[in-house]
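Lecture notes, part 5. Sequence design as translation. It can be helpful to think of inverse folding as translation between two languages: the language of shapes and the language of residues. The source text, in structure tokens, appears below.
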């Protein structure tokens, strides 16, 4: 047993995985051998899900069957609908609502009685969870706004169908492609905190719904997936303040606050996903005549990279991309979950395939040798 303390498990190897490879010095991300740039340009989110869950890119035939099997699972059971409405009417926070919704999906899953490690059943459960999250999220968002939910359509792909259910109209090609690319970019990222959380839960032989529910809870925090919402709120605050971006960022650092969307446990350079999303955000700004969001972001990036050696992570440029697509700011993190659920499921399948209980240790630093004083004398 080693006595070396690795706070935050930094750099500790705890598993082998053939899902994603990250080179933090070069700023590279690879899913199952394919670079993220290649996948972002040449593969749909459904193809990436298939790649993560089945180990290889689908043939045309495999893909059509897979897309159809996902699309037919989009509908929610009545009980799930009622829960979505109840959470929206109670004004629950979107990530907390999603956590409750995912947990509740197991009540209606026909495979819920299967062995937790049954791979065929888990692939079916995984498809259902992944297919239903967008339906639940779009309905939640619309009910909060006083609108009726919109039923999913089976003829649209995963990305377009979500935007259709959210906005009530089919997205144009630019919006559909940008959103699909964002889903591809967020699908997996090694043993990030939420994925680790999913695998810890799976390692006790809890089931897939329990593992994904744990992961949603972990993703919600501001040091992880919650940062994309924080980034947009910061950019809106900067815009309102009328300050120069450099002055704004200096004030923020002087106040001892972190700048959301910067820094990363694994990357020492710019996150490759931020590189791709920066270009998307810029293009959307040029097309819509709103270049200031991207301009602010670039000014902040240049300042922090030069002065503090901090580079942007994926959350920094996804924020202005989603904003310019008209997506409500407080569902940015649930949208991250909509994509990352693919990676969580793939990692849980890997964990079940070669399972050992995950159970690290803490060094005890509390008192010893105490004895219980009778209550009346304490
Ligand atoms: C999808 C994702 O999860 S990507 C990450 C999303 N999260 C964020 O963007 C939140 C802001 N970023 C952060 O808080 C951190 O960079 C994390 C949580 C992502 C990584 O944390 P760690 O690897 O533990 O790095 P740690 O917190 O030790 O930071 C190292 C140093 O950089 C500084 N630093 C790191 N990130 C930031 C930031 N965003 N703003 C200002 N300073 C920062 C820290 O203050 C620390 O400085 P110090 O050594 O002088 O105290
Ligand atoms: O890997 C991490 O620690 C965080 C991250 O970028 C992700 O989950 O996408």
């Amino acid at each position: 047993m080693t006595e070396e303390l690795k706070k935050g498990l930094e750099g500790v190897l705890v598993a082998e995985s053939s899902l994603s490879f990250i080179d933090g010095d070069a700023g590279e991300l690879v899913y199952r051998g394919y670079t993220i740039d290649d996948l972002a340009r040449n593969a749909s989110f459904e193809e990436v899900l298939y790649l993560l869950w089945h180990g290889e890119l689908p043939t045309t035939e495999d893909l059509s069957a897979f897309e159809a099997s996902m699309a037919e699972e989009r509908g929610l059971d009545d009980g799930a609908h009622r829960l979505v409405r109840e959470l929206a009417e109670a004004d629950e926070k979107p990530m907390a609502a999603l956590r409750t919704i995912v947990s509740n999906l197991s009540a209606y899953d026909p495979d819920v009685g299967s062995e937790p490690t049954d791979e065929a059943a888990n692939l079916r459960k995984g498809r259902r969870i992944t297919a239903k999250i967008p339906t639940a999220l779009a309905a939640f968002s619309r009910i909060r706004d006083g609108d009726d939910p919109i039923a999913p359509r089976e003829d649209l792909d995963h990305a377009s169908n979500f935007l259709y259910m959210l906005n009530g109209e089919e997205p144009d090609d630019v919006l559909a492609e940008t959103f699909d690319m964002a889903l591809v970019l967020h699908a997996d990222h090694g043993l990030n905190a939420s994925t680790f959380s999913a695998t810890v839960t799976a390692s006790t032989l809890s089931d897939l719904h329990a593992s994904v529910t744990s992961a949603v809870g972990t993703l919600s925090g501001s040091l992880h997936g919650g940062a994309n919402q924080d980034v947009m709120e910061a950019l809106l605050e900067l815009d309102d303040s009328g300050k120069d971006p450099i002055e704004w960022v200096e004030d923020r650092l002087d106040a001892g606050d972190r700048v959301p969307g910067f820094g990363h446990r694994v990357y020492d350079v710019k996150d490759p996903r931020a590189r791709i999303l920066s270009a998307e955000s810029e293009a959307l700004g040029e097309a819509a005549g709103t270049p200031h969001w991207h301009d602010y972001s670039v000014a902040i990036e240049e300042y922090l990279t030069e002065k503090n050696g901090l580079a942007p992570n994926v959350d920094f440029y996804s924020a202005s991309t989603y904003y310019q697509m008209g997506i409500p700011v407080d569902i940015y993190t649930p949208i991250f979950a909509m994509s990352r659920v693919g990676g969580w499921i793939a990692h849980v399948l890997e964990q079940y395939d070669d399972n050992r209980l995950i159970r690290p240790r803490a060094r005890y630093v509390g008192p010893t040798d105490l004895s219980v004083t009778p209550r009346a004398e304490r």
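The translated text above is only one of many valid answers, since several sequences can fold into similar shapes. Residues 189-190, 192, 265-266, 313-314 surround oxaloacetate ion (ligand 2) (CB under 6 Å).
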